[in-house]
Protein 1
Amino acid sequence: MSTLMPTAAALVGRDLTVTLTNRAWVVLLQLGAVTPPIVSLLVWTGAVARGATPPVPVDQLVTWFVLVAVVSMVTSSWTASFLAEDIRTGGLSIWLVRPCPALLPLAANNAAEKAVKLVVLLPMVAVLALVVHDQVRLPSAPAVWAAALGALVCAAVLAFVLDVLIGCLAFWFEDVDGVQGIVGLAQRLLSGAVVPLMLLPSGVQGAVRFQPFRFTLAFPLEVLTGTATAGAADWLALLGWTGASLGLLALVWSRGVRRYEAAGA
């Protein structure tokens, strides 16, 4: 354990260096990340200007679209395909024999890339916020920010673990791309990435309230923008899904490693 933190720091530093060598790629990715919320914001503000009445106050809707790119970046994960490739080709063996958790380099890569991407993304979001500053309503109470931060950390952990679980399917299956595609589509629809869940009919909102994908994006945004119920049941569901996913990962990982044969190594 004494070498865990230095090892993690070294891995993060390595991935920071690699990511910084691809600065143009990072900028293009963040332009792509901020474009859909801008388009959605223009569509909804245009609709409101023509008499449409959204089910939530307009300032909350505008704040959502301003912040969604940042929250999505913080909670995103791109680990599954890389982990599956390492399992198929035997690349995982390198980390299984080293005195550190085998998933540590994946977590370090996730953290390092997010740090660089956020540095690029935040100025873009700041410009957008300045353009619509009259309708952006950020909370002033420290307790709300603390609650949003807690929800954001749990959301990031939950999203990462779910992504790793998909990658772990490569212990049993040759190709996990199909599963990854289906889960990715479900996550975009059910997390609020495509359409904010607060805009769905009330019956549909109730049906999707406690599913895990909501807590990977929509719930932190709802807490931050003041659109969430944020009752005890919601927080218990967030903590429950996060804890359950970690427990499931421990079980799946231990069984997967036992049957791992390092094919191609």
Protein 2
Amino acid sequence: MLPKHLVRRACVLAAILTLSAASIPTGARAADSSENAPANADPLAWDLDGDAAGESLGFPDPFEGVNRQTLRFNQSLDQWVLRPIVRTYGFVVPNAGRRAVRRVFANLNCPSVLVNDLLQREWNDARITVSRFVINTTIGLAGILDPAAGLGLERHDSDFGQTLALVGVKSGPFIMLPALGPITTRDFLGLFVDALFRPTTYFLGPGVEIIYSGSYGFVAREGAFDAMQALEASSVDYYSALRNAYYQDRTAMIWNRREHHRPSLHGGPGPLPKVRRPWRARPGGQFTT
């Protein structure tokens, strides 16, 4: 048995890495806060002023002062702890190997995606998720390969934060969490529910689950590393650019493949115009391969 204090510290580190995966806009638009706001505002963003839904062009940010201080702390932590680890991993493991690792974790996340597909009543997507999991787990060697994509079964993302948005739960405030990064209160809740949907939460022992959770978040962090570096380097106001990037990407991700769920500003269903997405946020550790 490991000493209790080591187990507690390992749990904290695993939680930090896992949750950080959810709050990364992995790719970053090279623009600062002077960019125009997105044309397709999230009608379910929480409007603190009580205005009509859809008028807000971003997640509400009532805690901006605290969030900015937290971001400065995160940048220091990133510089001295996470970046050296990510650089070492990128140097040691070739790109093909890193992509294979991301595919394995994406495959392990299929049960969570499936539950959310069913909760969203997306039966065809649920069928695709089950087919991908069976094919990639067997022929694809536990997800190392992705033969399902070659059969026309493309991977998609579904998470509980998205499920909540589709039933009308508002985003809540934008918050910058220490070590974890940007997220909304709605998506923060969704992370814990998605963990309950993953069989690994129950089947792995405490020690193995700690290693799995930490690796899960680290791989997502590594996949976002270059894009986050580019965003920071190209931004006059990094906080505003990060907040804007997270809003645009998360909103596009919520409504991707779910346009028929989207309410119009007049209260009825309305389609979402196509949005070009140069990056992707990944709640719950979703991975792009």
Protein 3
Amino acid sequence: MQNKNEKYKFLLTTASAVESICKKELEIYGIYDVKCHNGFCIVDADISFFYYSQHIKTANRIYIILEQMQITSYDDFSVQAANLFDKMAGFEREWQKKIVFKNMEEGKEKVKYRNKIESRNKIYNDKLEYEDKVDYNDKIEYEDSIHCKYQHEKNFKLDIACKKSEFKSEKTIYAIFLKEYQRKNLTASLNSGVFIDDDISFAGIDIFGYSLHIRGYRKFTGVSPIKETLASALVIHSISKDFDFILDPFCGSGTIVFEAFLFVIGAKVSQLNLDFCNSYFTYNNEYDTEAASAINSRLKKFEKLRVFICSDIDKEMFEISQANFKRLVNKFGLRITFEKQFTDFAVFKVKSLEIEYLFLFSYCDAYDVYYFLTKNSLLKNFVNIEKKQGLIISNLPYGKRLKDDIKQNKSLAALRRVDKDFSLCKRCYLTNMKWLNEYLKNGNFKKRKLYNGKIEVTFFQYDPDHY
């Protein structure tokens, strides 16, 4: 099946309230036939979308829709399930899985081949992780620990999401699909999904087979890490072609800054399940190259952004963010040069791309970060942010750091100082403090309710004062 002009329907799941940002990302890439629903997007596109999908950074999972129908009763799900599994039957095969395990005791990697994955739980117990020694040019199936709500012991896995629908019993829907799956005597371990919005039900197959927030570079995290897909959404929602630099003054493990970099360079962050896709169509490297070239040409408007700064008061986070950066460089096949290293900062340059990018990691209190970046004589040859437009964006501290009295809280005092010092820049903060603007006392702002995992948070955006 290789008709490039044939239309397909794809469903992209996102975090709650991120679907409009996902649509914005797709439009940046030149994909306009997108409809937003509550928690997912529907895309009508030709076969090239398979290749574009590997660059999408805000979606949690991507499904190709094989069945779409209007639902009037639960009996209709039986019909949809039968039609879906009739189509899935053509994709069955005893796929060989190549899996990389990390032996926690010996610190060595073990590569095992399995003809069939018997149980995901068994794989999770084997501590599936990325290893520095892995050749990322090899094809590797990544099995993630965050998957569907329902799975049967015999390879049946089903994601279910009911949005604004009277059919809210996910257990009933699961039972209907499982019964039909068993009646068809299927054994394929494909990840299927059914999504109901109002009275329309979409059913399809996950074209990747794993949660797309897994990038492969973040081995170490802080206390309250942000998912890579949400970090990308924050950046894409906030970024402008006018920015010269991006700074996260509470960077933690560096995720937000790294995701900004991956977006700007148009990195391919995900790997299609080629076992499934090659059953569906013939993967064409020329189409892959065309998609990458088209995306990179559209991202050239952000080429002014070349400086990426991670700063944190925690010495451990200072070291962890650098370790994750080196893993990112290895994962995406980039070449860097080590420019400067002192006790309180480190400078790297990425030179393997058309544009040279600079990364600065600083061990500094956010209260003093502006002074550090503008007055440190050792940094002047590398970073100059005075009178330049930039994006200050951060996932603010949670928990113990915020339990003190507000007037004596050092993290909040540092944030207020950052907001004042960088008033000529756009400032964006993700926080569980709904009252943050009352503390900062800035009337020029917008806010958006989001979810960082299960935590309800607010994304505050402050435009530069001179706008």
Protein 4
Amino acid sequence: MIADFVIVACLLDWRDCGLSYAHIIDGCCGLLRGFYVIADFVNVGCLLDWCDCRFSFGWAWYHYCFHYLLMGKRQNVRKGKGRKLTHNHISGPSLHGRNTAPELTPHIHGPRHLPGAETTSSERVQIGSVAAEFANSTKSNKALKNQRKRVNRKNRKLLLTLSPISLEEATPMSRDETMNKKFSYFSGGVAIPFNDKTEIVYSVKENLKVINNPQFDNHSLGLIYKRDDSLSADILLCPRNDITERGLNKCDMLCDAFDVVLKDPKAKVTIRGNKSQNVRTDVNNPLRYICIGTHVNQGGKGGITPFSAVLENTDLVTRSLVDTFVASIEHLFCAYVSHEEVNIVTKAIELVDAPTFTMPPSKSNPNPKKAKVYGAMAVGVNVFLALHTDKDFAQSAVSVLCRSECNQDEERILAYFAFPALGIAIPLKKGDVLFFNPNEPHCITSRVSETDHIYCVSLYLKSATIGLNNNSIPLTDDQKSVLEYKNNLAI
């Protein structure tokens, strides 16, 4: 078809009609939809080699084939300083061997809960979700190109280190079955007594497919599950080598630090939700579960409490251990979560100046460092949670810890993290870090063995934290610019 197009073109007087071979190549490139045309394109280039064109064939082939076909680049024109720029989110090689990620639009939320109310708090959450795309629209083509190179390098690394999760032979459980009026729990081994009127208990091994963890054979491999229409992974288990490198498998002192926090007189059982029944523990033991970090104030008070009062009485060693743990999780987040997701979260926090996890100021450290991604963490001892979803803004993280005395074999499974709607459960060993989509129904199971004494720790960033939970705070000029940009995208 292309060759015929060129032959017909040669019959025309180009000087009279004001066209050039670059226009022909431009038109041909718009018809291409796959890599198989590259050979034909080279042949066309040979036919045009005799012509002294204003724009070379190599330039045209690179600009259109590479940017449109290989990178999926969409040409959007924005208002610039006397020139036109093109922009889009930065994409790269897919973790499944093909580019399946869609264009970044306000209609694709990923792990984010976006409220629909027309209030300033809700608008801050909404503009936070497009803050990264707005930032890309202000960058030059050269800056976008350099950024794309970095993204490609990262994606090539992830292709080698993350093994795709197969849902074959998995039997997904319907949401009507698991997210009904009853609380649904999953047993990892330790039996769960329950009230059949308000609760229902499933078995991981009987009702779900336990994913074979490649870490058992190769510590340099992790796991990933990503839908074709998603920008980021719904499930991502970090390779074991990174866990040992960050020292998360040697967590005796960290467990001691969490004990100090849980034993503090100000420490009260706080639940990440409205229903306290969704967290359970052993029958004869008291519930030890607390949320520390930023707190979204409910009721008329509104606003965000920047840090937990329980941390004010802790010693410097405890603070340092907890702070280092958060930094290690965020390091893995930036290393393995997709560039798009990392960029969305960090740009949103920067735009609205959202509070993140931080220690209370002290004499020795009057200006403690803020976390980059997460706002708070939940810590529980020997707990298991009912199946639920969370109204978060970013992918949540979960890790299970225990002392060496109760788990000398670091390859042994301590608990499972269940995703019943997918029909799978991810086995978790000591120190493992799992990132997941909080919009996917999930829960931590009961322990595998009664002899284990485990600490389940999860980190999260609430959407209400991005909105600042205060409608009396007006939007800034920068936020209004992003809101206008978002509204133009929706037209």
